[in-house]
Amino acid sequence: MMILLSLLSVVGFANGAPPPPPPQALPISFNETQSSFMVLQQAPAKSAVYGMVGTPAADTVVPTVTVTVQDTASGGKSYTVQAVISEDGTGWKALLNPSSGSGGDFTITATCTGCANTTEAVLENVTFGDVWYCAGQSNMWLPMLYTFSRNDTVSAINSGKYSNIRLMAGNSQKATTFPWVTASQALANGNASVPDYALFQFSAACWYFGQELTNQMASAASVNTHDTLTPIGLISTAIGGSMIEEWMPNSTRQQCKQTGAGGYDGTLYNQKVVPYLDMTIKGFLWYQGENDMHKIKGNSLDHTGYGCEIATMVQYWRQQWSSTPGTTDPLAPFGTVVLPGSGSEGGANMGVMRWAQTGNYGVLPNAAMPNTFLAQAYDLDDPWGDKTCYEWKCCWNNYNETTCNKNTNGNVSVCDAYCEVLRDTPVYMGGIHPRAKQPVGARLAVAAHSLV
User: Is residue 159 a contact partner of residue 151, using CB atoms and an 8 Å limit?
Assistant: First the structure.
């Protein structure tokens, strides 16, 4: 068969058929975690840009990468740095000079010398500020669409507020990265009647943290406009139904005994954490624990269960993000949301779980988890989380007169308030995902403000 194919190939070329074109040479590129309009971490830390090296011009050529940072707001003033090429020759990373302050408008260009394709990679409208990485399970994932305060946020952005916030707007359940956008760009699509805003796909707890942190900074600076405030960059990688075991490598998790055995142990660490490790960040936000309610809560002091895992994960993430000196702080702030009662998933001992979420000290920070902070959510269950009226088919989107009358003994009006709230703000899978996420983000921000 191989001889026949070879003969056919020869015959084809002899008859004038052209040979297949050579593979296209790839140009240099930035990593997909980076795009125009992004926020890079401000001084004193060194920010990093990184990506893939283009196809070498020849097998014997070792490409070099030069990165130019141009301050477009100050007459084009610029500087260049040389990138470090990875051992396998496919990746590059460049540490930038610490920013002279927050804000600004920069163009960053990566050029490859020795690449077959000399097309440059360019990031535009880049600024410097504080970058926060948000992760966890579905209550961190829960999009803005499902929150009571969403329309207030839209109105505020449209009036010019929160112009300092930029985000990787998108649904983290569907992808790991999204292009960076400003707050106003996140409202470019959709309207009040058809709320298809990119903002409404983004993590509510993460956004409301940035929103309230902006409010805190504005209050401290006694300003009404937000253009001059420190830019805030928000990233969310949360995945619904995930367990803490999935957010760290198995080798790290095994430092703790009596842990859960997630079906995808370490998978989310590889998918959702590793792509961001080269990015210098300010800190972390973590809202997770519901799917570990049926596991051993344990104790960090005897290296068991969730109490050990949360302290171990915080330490490990900090080690990995700060492995390059001068980038992410080895004690970068880490905030945790303590579960509301609706987050039990049917598991027992919610009080013990809340204790475990602090490494079993009951407070943050503590000796096992220094430079951490928490937001209490025990009082933030959804006030209309009960799905009874919906299940009775009494609401506008599933109304059945016969069934509703039967279930309410003819007193249909008992469901009016619930159904009206449902009309205004949809619910996602019932009370397990409280729609009052603005207070969650606000409490995280108040706690974090003293650290930033």
Answer: no
**Residue 397's pLDDT is what?**
77
At 203, the amino acid letter reads S
Does 8 have pLDDT greater than 60? Answer: no
Q: With beta carbons less than 8 A apart as the criterion, state whether 231 and 182 touch.
A: no
Q: Is the pLDDT of residue 10 over 60?
A: no
Query: What's the pLDDT tens digit per position in 206-233?
Result: 999 999 999 999 999 888 889 889 999 9
> Phi-psi bin for 326: left (phi > 0), alpha (psi -120 to 50), beta?
left
At residue 262, the pLDDT reads 54
CA distance 322 to 87: 20
Radius of gyration in angstroms for the set of CA atoms belonging to the chain, rounded to a whole number: 26
Instruction: State the DSSP code for 175.
Output: -
- Cα-Cα-Cα-Cα torsion 171, 174, 177, 183, nearest 10 degrees, comes to -20
For the chain, helix, strand, coil in percent to 5 are 35, 20, 45
Q: Where are the alpha helices (DSSP H) in 222-288?
A: 250-253, 267-268
How far apart CA 97 and CA 41 sit, in angstroms, is: 11
Contact 174, 237 (CB under 8 A): no
**Do the beta carbons of residue 30 and residue 110 sit within 8 Å?**
yes
**What HEC string does 375-437 produce?**
EECCCCCCCCCCCHHHHCCCCCCCCCHHHHHHHCCCCHHHHHHHHHHHHHCCCCCHHHCCCCC
Q: What is the pLDDT of residues 339-398, one digit of tens each?
A: 998 888 888 899 999 999 999 999 999 999 999 999 999 999 888 777 788 889 998 778
Q: Tell me, what DSSP letter sits at residue 319?
A: H
- HEC-encoded secondary structure of 6-67: HHHHHHHHHCCCCCCCCCCCCCCEECCCCCCCCEEECCCCCCEEEEECCCECCCCCCCEEEE
